[in-house]
Design brief:
11% strand, 4-stranded antiparallel beta sheet, Alpha-Beta Plaits, Glycerol uptake facilitator protein, alpha+beta, 14 helices
Length: 320
């Protein structure tokens, strides 16, 4: 369930209430006249099943509530109410399959912002992966994957394409490319520094590396993994599952390759460097392709659910 908190201009409160009342899957409607001060207006509260939330938000925006008042949406972790249970049963579809497109756009916009913190995480993740590459240590590779923040910009590119928001797609792509460029440059300097103090040496990169050798040797299997990771990442984002854990799956195909390219560049191992760069670009393309296709599939499913929602609301929602 979702909880909506709305501030409505007094002249539109009746229309807001009418929209909520006719929406299948809503309950716990509360209207407090004149309760809002900034901006001034009436406070309207309600709960809505997640699968009906996107349609309700769209109608409220068409009413101009986001411009002249406000709409705040919160996830309800626990709701002990028979009315809430009945509302979820009334709404068509399953809440886990529902996509709040406005929330998705806002979330990816925030996560894809090029900031000092984002670049710092990218650099640290790639440096940790560099240690894992040189030592052929899988534990360090996993640690680097957990730190890598590139899932946000990758999702932003996919959402920008599907939602036809070129500004979001371009800013996300810029954050992705600049972040990786900064991380690889910093990791190259880090490698030279570690070499200067005797912690890294060229022979460590040339020796057999059964745990990390795949990183700079792209093959069809690598592309398949990137497709699976991209689909899993987008599904985690749209279904409000744990994005952090899925972010690890995303990073397994990106951050280690960037780290290996940086270390190879520092030691003039150009064959490994270009192999790692090819692996990185192949994986990024696969993740974004899978992400876009997954979002289009969810969009088609949402349209089907919207048709069912429209048929149910023609006669008005049942009494609450």
């Amino acid at each position: 369930m979702l909880h909506l908190r709305m501030i409505s201009p007094p002249d539109r409160t009746d229309a807001v209430v009418a929209i909520v009342e006719k929406t299948v899957g809503t309950t716990h409607l509360v209207v407090l006249k004149g309760a809002a001060r900034v901006p001034p207006g009436d406070l309207v509260l309600c709960d809505v099943a997640r699968e009906a939330g996107d349609e309700l938000l769209q109608e409220l925006q068409e009413l101009g509530l986001d411009a002249d008042g406000s709409i705040a949406v919160e996830n309800i972790d626990l709701s002990l109410s028979r009315r809430a249970d009945a509302a979820e049963e009334e709404a068509p579809g399953e809440g886990a399959d529902a996509v709040l497109w406005k929330q998705l756009t806002e979330a990816t916009h925030e996560e894809s912002t090029l900031s000092i913190t984002y670049c710092a995480f990218m650099i640290l993740a790639t440096m940790i992966a560099a240690c894992g590459v040189v030592l052929d240590n899988a534990v360090l590779i996993v640690g680097a994957m957990a730190v890598g923040p590139e899932f946000g910009p990758l999702a932003g590119v996919c959402v920008g394409i599907v939602r036809r928001e070129p500004r979001l797609a371009l800013r996300s792509l810029s954050a992705l490319l600049i972040g990786f460029a900064a991380a690889m440059a910093a990791t190259t300097l880090f490698t030279l520094g570690m070499d200067a103090i005797g912690q890294f040496e060229p022979g460590m990169l040339d020796r057999p590396r059964p745990n990390t050798g795949f990183i700079w040797q792209p093959d069809p299997f690598s592309f398949v993994v990137s497709l699976l990771a991209g689909a899993a990442g987008v599904l985690s984002l749209t279904s409000a599952k744990s994005g952090a854990l899925v972010g690890v799956a995303i990073s397994v195909t990106t951050v280690p390759a960037a780290a290996n390219a940086a270390v190879a560049l520092a030691y003039a191992e150009f064959a490994q460097m270009w192999g790692s760069v090819e692996q990185l670009l192949l994986n990024l393309a696969g993740i974004m392709l899978a992400g876009v296709l997954t979002l289009y599939g969810q969009k088609a499913l949402w349209r089907t659910q919207q048709g069912r929602w429209t048929r149910l609301t023609k006669g008005g929602a049942p009494g609450r």
